[in-house]
Automatic annotation (TrEMBL):
It holds the Pfam family Helicase_C_3. Residues 568-690 form the Helicase XPB/Ssl2 N-terminal domain. Residues 465-491 are annotated as: Disordered. Residues 475-488 have a biased composition (Basic and acidic residues). Transmembrane segments: none annotated. GO terms for molecular function: helicase activity. Keywords: ATP-binding, Helicase, Hydrolase, Nucleotide-binding. This is Helicase C-terminal domain-containing protein. The lineage of its organism: Bacteria, Bacillati, Actinomycetota, Actinomycetes, Kitasatosporales. Residues 792-854 form the WYL domain. InterPro entries: WYL_dom (IPR026881), XPB/Ssl2_N (IPR032830).
Amino acid sequence: MGIGELDREAHVPEVTGAAAAPRTLAEALRARGDEGLAALLRARPDLLSPVPNDLTQLATRAGTRGSVVRALERLDRFALQTAEALAVAPDPAPYPVLLALLTGDDGDPQIEAALPGALALLREQALVWGEDERLKLVRTARELLAPSAQHPSPTGLGPTVAEATSGMSPGRVQEIIAAAGLPATHDPVSAVAALTGLFTDRDRMGALLDSASPEALGVLDRLVWGPPYGEVSANPAPPVRWLRDRGLLLPVSARTMVLPREVALHLRGGRAHRAPEPLPPELGVLREYRPQVVDSAAAGQAHVTLATVEELLKSWDRGGPQVLRAGGLAVRDLKRTAAALDVTEETAAFWLELCYGAGLLASDGEADERYAPTPAYDHWLDLPPAERWALLVAPWLTATRTPGLVGGQDAKGRTLAALGPDLDRAPAPEVRHRVLSLLATLPPGSAADPETLFARLRWERPLRGAAAAQAGDGKPGEDKPGDGRPDGRPVVATDLRSRLARWTLAEAELLGLTGRGALSGPARALLNLPLAEAASPADHGGGVEPSVAAGRAATLLAPLLPEAVDHVLLQADLTAVAPGPLRRPLADALAVLADVESKGGATVYRFTPGSVRRALDAGRTASDLHEFLKAHSRTPVPQPLAYLIDDVARRHGHLRVGAASAYVRCDDDAVLGEILADRRSAALGLRRIAPTVLAAQTDPASLLDGLRSMGYAPAAESAEGDVLITRTDAYRTPARTAPVPVPDGPPAPDTTLLGAAVRAIRAGDRAATAVRKEPAAAPAAAGALPRTSAAETLATVQAAAMTGSAVWIGYVNAEGAASQRVIAPVRVEGGFVTGYDHTADEVRTYPLHRITGVAELADEQV
């Protein structure tokens, strides 16, 4: 829409009289109450950035292309179909014409019942205005939705007869109406009107088509539901020639014909859409379970979530992989992480992003940047299991980062990396919340059919999915649910919302928000949804703070999680079985003394010489280890395990390694001679400097590893000669905050902001529409600032301050922005005027030298 057109639409004078129909969108908005304006600003928050000065500016902004596109993308399918029908209807369109375009000749009770609601939604969002007798679609929306050769309409309709014949010669038009059996006219306008009247007259049009051959009717059938354009040869076949001669097909170029809109509507029985969808698709139930079974399954998966996150971050306790130069994790590091967790790479990427989104994992920011747990991870470990779970899933629900994109390509063909910078997708939180909310509409324990769920989402936001389908996100060749082709073959759906929904279902199952595909009780609490077992209205959530909802979810989950145990079962094959999740001190100590062999309901640990030596390096003695096992085992300590501990402890520390750059000392010079004679020690650069001391050309850590690989059990010593105890001190990043979600447009305004915005717009509109006295000189052009001399300005505002009247001023601020305001001066002194600004609805002070001019109001308007 051009600026001039917007100006004309917004500045038409308001019609007086309560019964007068609005002639512009601004007038329609002016007739709304405060609640109606608040509803518009709530539905389209982009109109508030910044707050419009008055209703004219609000109407202008509501008609801009960007704002209209955003509003259309948030319409459901039937509201969008209603707008599309208005785009092909006459402008303005009476309500019966719109209803006929949606229901057709046969009528449809469901559409008749749903249309008032869809029309009310379009009116609320200022996409449609006017009374039922004169419904007008906002001009920008009509330009976006109306059919054209460059942008076909979703209705499949083509141009009208008048549009298709606009460049046709008058003689050719006369030939068409003659072939159609119409009398000749004196001008092309009346000829086009006569042809249009023929095509919209059901009886005469039916008689004309009855004379057509079956082949000609077959041509029309192929074009009737779109696209309405078809290519023809220089010498078309007789059926096409017959249609062309009678105007049933009109040329748009030398080789292209189009089916006029009026003809298509007749063939469709008056229906603009092939399949209007006034009602959303119903969710299908795939399976039904008892709610207790669902909650138990979800709680089991929630326990697995906590164990997986702990295992992942513990493996990076001393510093994780390096950060790529472009950001994110290298593919090889993702593969190693997936192998360590025994999951697929896609699942590993999800766990990494979950930790990152919860603020438990970040980069350290050093020159050689690496990933590592954050200090928040240590605090998280100290919390009860249910609270730890809530701190993971609450950020996931609102995160815009999308792990499912990992491994795909961006618009430039670059691979998207886990923890990388290009994984934010603004619609993700809305889709996650909507998917879980739809699951909550089913009876407790019911798992939804995914395909019906995806169909429901596509009905709710059809344009958003279509727009994302062209963005190129995601993995090539990935099959997604689709609408189906006419031949029955499935369509690969690439729209982002369907893919986000599919990922949401999988991730919710991994997190324990769903069990066996059905929504769990803790998930309902997290979403602020009513609980089946709620005993009072206070237990129904509904608008509570997110932290409170997370606490309620944790409270519901806590009794369902397995209770931590404080014992293990030692076995003769050098293994220990933990019959459940171990309490933290026991789990940490056992993780040092033994290696995890298998995980599941019962974790199996294996004792090896290396694991026992690890415990001794951590400062434990053999007697400490024996006492530890006796205190925490429900079975006697097996003899092989006791022998293993004693044997490793006997050799542990027999050799001492220090810095020479490194040295080895031992009281038994025969052992040092044995080391020197071993060919495997050549890489260590050892030489004897004393009967009991060997010097090395490598650092102490490498020397320790080399001697251990040769079968020895050396211990590190300090500069004072004391044995160094290897602490399991964890490496942590500096304090890091969790990534902030990328907003999907301006945030939704709260009630306080809406009320203040409505008051400011009303005040500005009263000021803008106030009637002003015309100056003695020639009146200024519309919209121009008033111009008076400094003396006249001072005298007028002083007089207004004395009489308490309001005046109209032009003002230029420090940034050079000009505006018009209506103020009631209270005090004029020191080169400033202080008064109540009706435009801003507050008291303000203005420098007199920035006032371009002043004019009195015709009468008291404010």
